[in-house]
Amino acid sequence: MIKIEVDMNQCQHYGQCVFEAPDNFKLNDDDKLEYVAEAPDSERDNIEAAVDVCPMQAIRIVE
Amino acid sequence: MTVANPAAPVVIVGAAMGGLRAAESLRRSGYTGAIRVVGEELHAPYNRPPLSKEVLATDVTHEAVAFPSRAEMGDVEWMLGVRATAVDLDARTLTTDDGEVQPWRALVIATGLRARRLDFAPIAGRHVVRSLDDAMALRAELTEGARVVVVGSGFLGCELSATARKLGCEVTIVTPSAEPMMRPLGELVAKEMRRRLTNEGVDIFSGVTVAAINGETTVESVELSDGTVVPADVLIESVGSECNTEWLESTDLDLSDGVLADNAMRAVTTSGVARDDVYVVGDIARFPNPMFDDVARRIEHWNIPTDTGKRAGAVLAAHLADDGSFADVVAKPFAPVPSFWSNQFEIKLQAYGLLGLVSDDDIRVLEGDLSDQAAVGYYRDDRLVGVLGIGMKAALLPYRKQIAEGGA
Ligand SMILES: Cc1cc2nc3c(=O)[nH]c(=O)nc-3n(C[C@H](O)[C@H](O)[C@H](O)COP(=O)(O)OP(=O)(O)OC[C@H]3O[C@@H](n4cnc5c(N)ncnc54)[C@H](O)[C@@H]3O)c2cc1C
């Protein structure tokens, strides 16, 4: 299991993570980020890509 | 050409986002040999966009903007505070300003851009913002009531204006353009941006350039081409950038605008040959993106160092592995969707695609209302090539998909 943390004080809801890891991140109808804090290990590449593309660098994998 | 020495490291020149992503990608793609990153700045790679926005508005520290370091990067060697001065592509060596000549097995060019300066004598009070050190120096002068003149009205100039204004400065933009952000966004949107920036108390002098900078020991005023004199304590020059290619001048690489690369991010020579041992990533890379056409372009957007760094790392790792996978990896489609964002006061812009490809007649509001929230479409030959959100985000996603799929 991978554990994900998003600093919601930093997050500006750009939604770049949504393209990389759609199983874990989405923008709701109010343009706000919603995310699932756990992902199977098979999703690691996608979650790391989501971490990379966050303009605010607000996403972290908790090891 | 000599045979590559497998004991020599892959040398990445430029220790910023593009260089970092290339190194990470080499590791992730299975390359276990030595990697050395040579960078002129003393700081480990950090994120630049907050330097004109959130971080400039608060406390400018490396900690606030540093990229996280991954475990797989543990044995990457960082040579920071060292500038590359020359390279020999035949001998496969790099010369640095500390006098060292080091061998490399493959080279990644990631030296990005520097801020262009106005052509006036040096004087205290003149600033640019490209690096963390630049932002720290500027932050110290953005005190309440300071009179700030920003030259240039691209995204960066407008963001710096907004941040200075939020910090209580008196802000004037001086720009040769008719409207702020005119070139990247087009007239329709740029006119609305002027309205919003003016509403926030930013003065805009457009259609003018700087004729003189006045002051004894520090900037006191700026004289414009129409004779207007604008008092100033701080002058911020945001007039574009120049590619850091000087260290490559003795090579036969195509340096006509940045460094030319093919779609696998391999550097291309003036005779049109792509080199399997030299790669280009980030702002400095001029490469073709089949999403639009076969024209090679430089794209100064934040996602590009990551996308091109990953691509270059994967292709180079396959080349070094020499396991027969190279041709397949090179042939993999690579068509990154350019994307950028910009925050100015409460204005939140987000875009996908290449807005700059389009003439003013081919820009239309797709959803919403320009004076509030809107999605704006940029068309070339009736094909959607760019979309801009003003305040809107999720609404852009279907348009992004359309652009990525060829805009039909
Ligand atoms: C203040 C600011 C705000 C921005 N905001 C946004 C934004 O909101 N949205 C967006 O999409 N984009 C934004 N950008 C653009 C984005 O940050 C760039 O696209 C990105 O930084 C490019 O990364 P890079 O690694 O290609 O090059 P750079 O970041 O330019 O890094 C190149 C590195 O190479 C080093 N170097 C240069 N020459 C040598 C040499 N000879 N030897 C050794 N090292 C050398 C430099 O010191 C530098 O560290 C912004 C840029 C700035 C400066």
Automatic annotation (TrEMBL), chain A:
**UniProt superkingdom:** Bacteria
Q: Which UniProt keywords apply?
A: 3Fe-4S, Electron transport, Iron, Iron-sulfur, Metal-binding, Transport
Q: Does the UniProt entry include the keyword Phosphoprotein?
A: no
Its needed co-factors are: [3Fe-4S] cluster
Key word Metal-binding present in the record?
yes
Which SUPFAM superfamilies does the record associate with it?
4Fe-4S ferredoxins
- What is the name attached to this protein's record? Ferredoxin
